């Protein structure tokens, strides 16, 4: 009957639901036997066999070997076929672009880095393509093998205008036609551009400290401050994509910044940003380990040195305590509005403080806010933004590729 493929409760839909459950179990466990899949899903042996045969014929699973060391005959082991789809993630910053390719299982199979993200709109597009193709080549693939691309940038694209906002320092990315021209350059490959801090939150939600948490906030501190807000398990982006731009929060103890869009700064940034961290170090006589680096790297080194020496009275203890108070002041404003279950501290300048800083922020926030959310440090390895871009692309791609509803039984 026409339309029956999408009708809940029909055999085809039930088969598709079982298929997806089995594929998710294979992603979780790596390899499973038919018997184990049957036990985990509650399916009979004949039904599990039919399911695996169907998924193998569709190119979604492969036989990887046989079980050994158990009584009885060896059983075939099945795994998700890594070649079923590949995705790309890009992290665009003012200093360069990092790109990575992952197969459908989530394994990273290619990487590439480029300095500078481009100085013009066409330059930005050219650099994205160059970074993408570099990662694709490193994976031994072609661009056409990529199923979906997610690009992380600072700031956010206003959905009503298509313009990048809150990131005036990201040169070349402010043309109102940028997304349209990038779509033309990428051709049939679907892509999306997402705020970098939002992607860091997606990484935490899927493989990090926020797994199983429906309501949390991630505070990001590197080149500037940002936050991601997850409510009911979904990112809250706001009307213009600007939800979480906490750097612009007016806060006590900081000068009132006007024309914040023009200055690209605000109260929270002035109160606890990287320049302030370096100023606090100078005021207290804390000397960071020698070595050149960016302003962000110097601020992170100061925080790390403060944390290292914070157990004994002295400059390190004073700097870390002051930094914690300033972070908690900004978080208190966020907590009063959002009331999250969990706050994750992320970004190089903040995470450099480790457990010592986290504990101080937790204590300070308890005195400044009525709700008392748990506070944890990010544990996402490598680049959280790039990891989040890949995880976002994988989630959408798996929903598409793993949907067997319309396939022939």
How are the secondary structure elements laid out?
Blueprint: H1 11-29, E1 32-33, H2 34-41, H3 45-57, E2 61-66, E3 76-80, E4 86-93, E5 96-103, E6 108-115, H4 121-138, E7 146-153, E8 156-157, E9 164-165, H5 178-186, E10 191-195, H6 196-207, E11 216-221, E12 225-231, E13 234-235, H7 260-263, H8 267-272, H9 274-284, H10 295-308, H11 315-338, E14 342-346, H12 348-351, H13 354-368, E15 374-377, H14 384-401
Parallel strand pairs: 4-7, 7-10, 11-14, 14-15
Antiparallel strand pairs: 1-3, 2-3, 4-5, 5-6, 8-9, 11-12, 12-13
Overview of the molecule:
The chain has 409 residues and is an alpha/beta fold. 43% of the residues lie in helices and 19% in strands. The protein has a five-stranded mixed β-sheet, with helices on both faces. A hairpin with a 2-residue loop joins β12 (225-231) and β13. α6 packs across α14 and α11 crosses α13 (354-368). The protein is globular and about 70 Å long. The two termini are 15 Å apart. The relative contact order is 0.12.
What can be said about this structure in brief?
The chain is of the alpha/beta class and 409 residues long. The chain is 43% helix and 19% strand. Helix 4 (121-138) runs parallel beside helix 5 (178-186) and helix 11 (315-338) packs across helix 13.
Considering the chains and any ligands shown, give keywords for the structure.
409 residues, alpha/beta, five-stranded mixed beta sheet, 19% strand, disordered N terminus
């Amino acid at each position: 009957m026409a339309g029956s493929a999408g009708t809940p409760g029909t055999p085809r839909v039930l088969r598709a639901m079982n298929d997806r459950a089995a594929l998710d179990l294979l992603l979780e466990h790596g390899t499973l036997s038919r018997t184990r899949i049957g036990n985990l899903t509650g399916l009979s042996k004949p039904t599990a066999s039919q399911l695996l045969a169907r998924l193998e014929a569709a190119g979604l699973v492969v036989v990887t070997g046989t079980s050994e060391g158990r009584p009885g005959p060896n059983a075939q082991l099945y795994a998700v076929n890594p070649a079923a789809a590949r995705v790309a993630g890009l992290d665009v910053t003012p200093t360069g672009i990092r790109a990575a390719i992952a197969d459908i299982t989530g394994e990273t199979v290619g990487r590439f880095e480029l300095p500078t993200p481009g100085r013009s709109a066409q330059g930005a597009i050219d650099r994205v393509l160059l970074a993408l193709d570099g990662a694709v080549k490193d994976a031994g693939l072609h661009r056409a093998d990529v199923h979906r691309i997610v690009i992380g940038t600072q700031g956010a694209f206003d959905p009503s205008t298509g313009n990048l906002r809150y990131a005036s320092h990201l040169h070349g990315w402010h043309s109102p036609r940028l997304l349209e021209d990038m779509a033309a350059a990428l051709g049939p490959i679907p892509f999306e551009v997402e705020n970098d801090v939002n992607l860091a939150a997606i990484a935490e939600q899927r493989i990090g400290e926020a797994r199983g948490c429906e309501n949390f906030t991630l505070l990001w501190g590197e080149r500037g401050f940002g936050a991601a807000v997850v409510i009911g398990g979904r990112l809250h982006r706001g009307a213009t994509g600007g939800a979480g731009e906490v750097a612009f929060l007016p806060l006590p103890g900081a000068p009132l910044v006007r024309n914040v869009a023009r200055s690209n700064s605000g109260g929270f940034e002035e109160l606890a940003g990287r320049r302030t961290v370096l100023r606090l170090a100078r005021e207290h006589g804390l000397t960071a380990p020698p070595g050149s680096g960016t302003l962000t790297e110097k601020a992170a080194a100061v925080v790390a040195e403060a944390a290292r020496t914070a157990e004994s009275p002295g400059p390190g203890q004073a700097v870390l305590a002051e930094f914690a108070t300033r972070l908690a002041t900004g978080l208190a404003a966020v907590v009063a509005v959002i009331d999250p279950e969990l706050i994750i501290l992320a970004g190089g300048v903040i995470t450099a403080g480790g457990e010592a800083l986290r504990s101080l922020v937790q204590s300070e926030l308890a005195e400044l806010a009525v709700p008392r959310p748990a506070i944890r440090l990010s544990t996402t390895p490598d680049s959280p933004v790039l990891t989040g871009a890949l995880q976002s692309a994988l989630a959408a791609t798996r929903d598409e590729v793993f949907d067997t509803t319309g396939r022939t039984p």
